[in-house]
Amino acid sequence: MTETGTKLSSVSFFCPAYHDEKNLPVLIPRVHAFLSEIANEFEILIIEDGSPDKTGEVADGFAVQYKEVRVIHHPKNLGYGATIRDGFLHSHFEYVMYTDGDNQYDVREFAAALLLLQEADVVTGFVREKAASGRRKVQSVLFNAFVCILFLFPIRDVNCSMKIYKRKVLDAITIKGTSAFIDAEMLIRARRAGFRIAQFPVTHFHRQAGLASGSKLSVVVPTIIDMLKFRFGLL
């Protein structure tokens, strides 16, 4: 339930999943229970990004267990941006929320964001203390600084994977990028279109299973390229 005691009309939740065969069995039942409390109608999309482990099999198992779960399989690994984009493109309902499939966020912390939806069109989390290596923390600080400077966009944590978009925002903007810059791209496009963005604090937990890939050059370089292309109107 929201703080006003009412449920949201309908919610699409999605998560990217890669090397998450041990994470999904924790995440999906938790998401299902949470959405059952706060939404009249909901769907759960697992975007399985060509994972070499049993992530796809585990995801398909949840589609059998829960009628609200759908799985989208990538035949090969396409990367974070492509999974996020597919999540939005395949979501059907009035509110679209997402987080990662690695259990580094607690979906129940979305409860604090629901009241903000009365005034805001997009709600995005910010992490107070990242449970990450020193290198990842530095990358995050630099990325947020670059986004702030290049786009005059003062936001505390661009890449925090705890976000809710209203359907009218998604209908009004076009998602073009497929790199990890996609979080920033969408927020900037939403702001330029005149939509209201609110922020709320979330907790970041250490990854207990699976593999992190956010600091790889194969992720960082395309993100920088898309950031520059977007800055100069080429994306």
TrEMBL record:
A single Gene Ontology CC term: plasma membrane
Domain of life of the native organism: Bacteria
A Gene Ontology molecular function term of the record: undecaprenyl-phosphate 4-deoxy-4-formamido-L-arabinose transferase activity
GO biological process, one term: lipopolysaccharide biosynthetic process
Coiled coil: none
All residue ranges annotated as the Glycosyltransferase 2-like domain in the record: 13-172
Keywords, comma-separated and alphabetical: Cell membrane, Glycosyltransferase, Lipopolysaccharide biosynthesis, Membrane, Transferase, Transmembrane, Transmembrane helix
Pfam family name, one: Glycos_transf_2
Name of the protein: Glycosyltransferase 2-like domain-containing protein
